[in-house]
Amino acid sequence: MVEERQHRLSPSAWNRYETCPRMYWLSRQGLPRKAGMAASLGTAVHASIEDLLQIDLDGRELSESNWLPEKAEEILRKRWEEEKQIFHETPRHPNWKEDKYKEARKQQAGAVNMLLDHVGIAGLSFERITVALWKKIQSLVIAVEGELVTKDGHLMGRLDLLLADIDKEGKLAGWLVADLKTGKSPIGSLKPEVNRQLRMYRDILLSNNPNPPPVRAEGWYTSTTSKWVAKGENVLEDALAAWKATQITEEPLEPTPGQSSCGGFCDWKAWCPHWLKWRHESGSLHKGDFADGVILIHQYKPAQGIAIVESCTPKGDQGEVEPNGDKRSVQFDGRGKDVLEKLLDDGHEGPIFIGSAMMNRDVWRVGPWCDVLPWAPIPDSGR
Prior knowledge:
This protein has two domains: 11-239, Lambda Exonuclease, Chain A (Alpha-Beta Complex); 269-374, CATH 2.40.50. The chain has ten helices and eleven strands.
């Protein structure tokens, strides 16, 4: 068992546990982490907004304008480069997409526009934002990039922005938890897991403050500059029940094989025997584009990046595999090729997990976005 720090449950961990307890358990085992471009972009944008809200403007003329474009660009570029370094230092990562910087700038602008909307001045260009106006926005910031933790230490969340709601007379009317979202905007309503995440932030804040003003929580979607209010009952009782259920144990937690877990997104398939068995039994193993599989390498030509491989199928239910006689060519390129060659140079000879490979073709493709890892399933009895 790897995790020894105090057990705390976050909204993302809660969601993971509900999708599949085994997935949650594997996420706590110190396995090689995976970076993603969308997450890195989001982190850079979030950090740049937090920096802008904490910038020291003392000594500058209140009427000064046209200062924000250069400062926003400077801060975003700094955070972008920091994220790029972290991305490349993460054991599992695809190619960095520098062209996504334009999107990061757009998302940063969306966040600034929503802050302007919070003070009743939506749509103002960066050039026209004065020092006085930005100071007004800063005056409404109660906290940025804070960690919310219940008094018993069991539940936690990462707070982007806590803002003061001010009425027309300039008096405090409440608190606003604003969570910046750089992903796709909702259609019709917040996704249930996002709605619950925001309510959990709201409810932790309420539980920690004996006499709070009214508190609301919103998801701020920067791509469309849209705000979505979280609605619903207090979630802390359910969250505490989930905290009890998610205590880390020596033995792996039970899996819940199905489309949302085995058939969907999971960073830890190379260590889980159950997705392979489920895929095989459902007839979907090694089929489709961006599919996962387990293979044996029979021959590899480094100059071309071409391998002759044989697909593997489950032998039992604890991760043992056997070749099934289905041999084919696989094109490895980019980082997929680099990782495979490092694996072979290190002497690996057994089955290999390939994640998100393009299998809907005669010659499969394992590209820069793919996982290439030793197949190392952890059995139900543990390590």
